[in-house]
Amino acid sequence: MAAEKTLTPTDYISHHLTNMTAGGGGFWTLHVDTLVTSVVLGILGIGFLWWVVRGATSGVPNKRQAFVELAIDFVDDQVKSIFHGDRSFVAPVALTVVVWVLLMNAMDFLPVDIVSWLFTNVLHLHYWRPVPTADVNTTFALSLSVWLLMIYFSIRIKGVGGFVYELFCSPFGVKPVWIAPVLMVFNLLFNLVEYISKPLSHSLRLFGNMYAGELIFLLLGLWAATGLVGSIFGAILGVGWAIFHILIVALQAYIFMMLTIVYISMAHESH
Fold first, then answer.
1. Does residue 3 carry a pLDDT above 50?
2. Is the distance from CB of 42 to CB of 133 less than 8 angstroms?
3. Which of 8, 84, 176, 184 has the most CB atoms around its CB within 10 Å?
4. Full domain range(s) for residue 118
């Protein structure tokens, strides 16, 4: 307890931004808190949808069923506006992505000090970060999964030959013939930059916004600990930021879903 009372602001922030880890270190280090929270939220999100759909009726829907139907229709409309093929796979993927990311983002609304106290004193876990999407490993894993789906559909729709041809022959083409080798090199470089930048931008956008939101909540918590005046202003600013953060949480989940749809849709199209 004495050590907790002498925490500096840097120690306080560092403590809340440190993951609970396990493994051999380096690449093989596992962020246990991120993995456990992500899996639990995924099960809860998919379980809730399954529960509602399983009890759905053709008559007048109850509030729970109406809410899920609105969410499904909204996602399906977004897919329909971008993807013009068979939506039987893409629409469920988009729904899964937006629900899962939204739940992980929403963990940022939990009071960090209360969460830390519960895990420290009840479960005896010194470190536990409750926001999986504030961990870059989560957002990279999600974006790489979408990236692999994009590669898979590119090869499935165009074939291996068509995929390789597109890498070397677009966007500049390969004519005139006398300069074709140079154009092929530039085509490949441009396509490699595009393929590498997609998972980077897809993951870092979500991570940056959620990490910044988590950090601001911590800074407001520090301000609230400076005394009575700081507590009042910290509470007011905390409520204001929480209300604004609702928009960020929902918007980032929506953007991540839309980019997922766009990338898979692009894989189905030829130049």
1. no
2. no
3. 184
4. 28-135+198-267
205 among known catalytic residues: yes
Q: Per the domain annotation, does 204 fall within a domain?
A: yes
Catalytic residue among 62, 201, 231, 270: 201
Computed on alpha carbons and rounded to an integer, the radius of gyration of the chain in Å comes to 23
| Residue 209 and residue 248 in contact, taking contact as beta carbons nearer than 8 Å | yes
Catalytic residue from among 209, 231, 265, 270: 209
Of 87, 191, 205, 265, the active-site residue reads 205
pTM for the whole thing? 0.87
All residues at 6 or more sequence positions from 87 whose CB lies less than 8 Å from its CB, including other chains: 76, 79, 80
Residue 33, number of CB atoms within 10 A of its CB: 21
CB 145 within 8 A of CB 199: no
Domain-located, residue 141:
no
